[in-house]
Structure formats: C-alpha cells, structure tokens
C-alpha cells in the first residue's frame, strides 16, 4: 500500500501530517510526502519518501522571519504582525484581505502538479492539508478520493451560516464591537465570493464539467479528519458536520536531547511557553508572560522563536530558553502551558494532560480559545490587554484546576493515549468505500 501526504511548505502543517503518516510507515507501508523544499528535513527525519510540490509563495522550516521570505510574502508577514498589535478585528480584517494570495496561489498550475504526482506515485490513499485548496482542487477534479485533514479549530471548515474568517465564538476576554463584527462579516463574505469565483474558474480550466460551488471555503473531501479532540467540539455544530472523525492530536516523537531531558527531570514544576512559528515575533507579550512567571517563582521552558531573548528581561539561570524546543517532550513533563492557541500547541498540550493559558492573536485561535475556556481546561486572555498580573492570576488558576476539570483533562489524555490520532486516521481511511474496493 502507498500513502501520499500533501502539505504546504510549513513545518507547523507538515509535522502533524507526517505524524499521522507514521501509522502507515510503522506497518511497513510506503509513504510519500509532497511538499516544498523548506520542510525537506522533516520528511527525511520521519524516514519518508519525498516529492517536490510548491503550494504557496511562503515557507517555514520551523521558525519564520519576514526577512527570510520572498519580497511579497515578507511584506505580507510584516503587515500581519503589525495588525496583531491593533487587536483581534484589525488582524482578522488584514488576513481576510490577504486571503486570495494566501490560499489560491497559482491554482491551476499547483492542481496540475498535484495530479502529476498522483499519476507518478499511484497512491492507494491520500492525506491532504485542508488549507491546501489548490492541491485539493487538483484531487477533486481528477476524481481522487482523499482524507481531508483540518489542522485547526473545526470552524476552519465552515458549516451552516458560518463565514470563513469570522470566528463563530469568542473567548470572554475578547469581545469585539458589534458594528466592527458586522463590517468584518461583510468583508469575509466578499472575500468568500471572490474565492469561490477563483475556485470555479480554475476548476473549469481543469475539468469543464466540474460542478461550480457557491462557497469554496466550505468544500471538503469525502472524509474530514479534524485534528482536534471531540471534547472541544461545540455540540451545536455536530449535526452540520460532514462525514468525519476527530483525531484528538498527533503527538509526534522527537529526537532525544540529553540537556533538555536532564533539565526537565530536575526542573520540578515548570510552565512551557511557546507562541509558535509566527507569533513569537510578539516579544512584548512574551515579556509579560516572563514577568508573570517570575512573580510566581515558577520555572519555565520558553521557545523564543524569532523573538530576541534580550527583550524578555533578565531571565533566571535555571530557565530553559531556546529559539526552538522539542514541544511534545517538554509538554509531557510540564505542569501548564502558555500558548497563542495554535492547533499543534493546543492539541499536544491536551493530549499530554496539560492545562493552558491561551492568548489568541488571529484566525481560528479565537474559536479555539473559546473552546478551551468552555471546557474548563484552561483560561483565555486578550494578548494585547493582559498585564503581567492578569497572566499570573491565570497561571495560578490553571495550575490549580478544580477537580471536575482536572478529571476531564486526565480522561481526555488517557483516551488519546489509548487511541492515538495516527491510528484513528489509519482506521478511518481503511474503512472508506474506495479503500475497501482497492483491497478486494
């Protein structure tokens, strides 16, 4: 059997997809990854085959800096970083305006490149990042079934009257003005219409008989795999979801680092802090998190990313501070985590039974933060408004969860350990009618 994995050239996307693929790899099956050059090292580290496939103008090998990107992408990132300082709605407006170039980069060329790889590799099963719209269009117009992996809050695939780019729920600490929200919704609807037009034009060029869509953002594969625990799902959305499975998380194995292993074994109670590949640029917020940790006398492991550690103030000598840290290894030993609310950070923390302080900046992070808050497994704050004292209070709360929330979190982690995300994905694809036909 051959599995084809299709991913944009971003580490934060490929890492969970490659982890899902280990269910095939560890069974001795062939796994081929189609992605860009920046993530080639990740493919090699997982011991998988690779095919070159560029699906966007940007890339990210693990830590992203605007100056390392092509000129247009670098300018876009700088605009995004500036928007996050203005607040939630300005950030979402900026992202909406950028969406066409972000998500439908050279759609016909990328779709055809995807089709050529399928013809060459001849996969039995395909896993593809939901946000790889141009690759999914290539698969759909060629009639190739696939597992559609939503790497984010489930609302990244809108249902019902949801509009892509407009969070369906907000954490209590972030309450946009109703008029601003109405304007944002109108903008997201205009972008959605333009995106559908672009999708339909590309689809007609690829296959003139392919059906048109009114909302390309709502299009999906025959099986949707949500890289999220079902415990965070909004029950009201349940009846609207397409055929799907909740994977929980994709807890990856990371190379052993003796220095980090020694530190975590002797650190006692510590907090893991990371704002991911992009948002580590917000050193001002990381500084306030560091101030809160110092005030509580807590030890910390901080992945600074693109931030200058010097901007975080004088850091205690017994803290672990590096640009990049093995997140899953540290989460397995951490008492709590502070995150921007990215999908990997949230799902990996919960899969390790670690409560969260979430500081959402953009996209589906707001809905994800609201889900964490609703579940009682963490606290959400506005990153631009939360002072060090607010952060210290939030950390104290998650470090002393009430018994009911602690029990739910422990049960979630136990269920994921018993049925890891890669195994759920493997079983789900094997049960698809197309897979049964191939096996007969």
From TrEMBL:
Q: Name one Pfam family in it.
A: UDPGT
Q: Which InterPro entries match?
A: Glycosyltransferase_28, UDP_glucos_trans
Return the Gene3D superfamilies for the record.
Glycogen Phosphorylase B (3.40.50.2000)
Q: Which PANTHER family match?
A: STEROL 3-BETA-GLUCOSYLTRANSFERASE, STEROL 3-BETA-GLUCOSYLTRANSFERASE UGT80A2
Q: What is this protein called?
A: Nucleotide disphospho-sugar-binding domain-containing protein
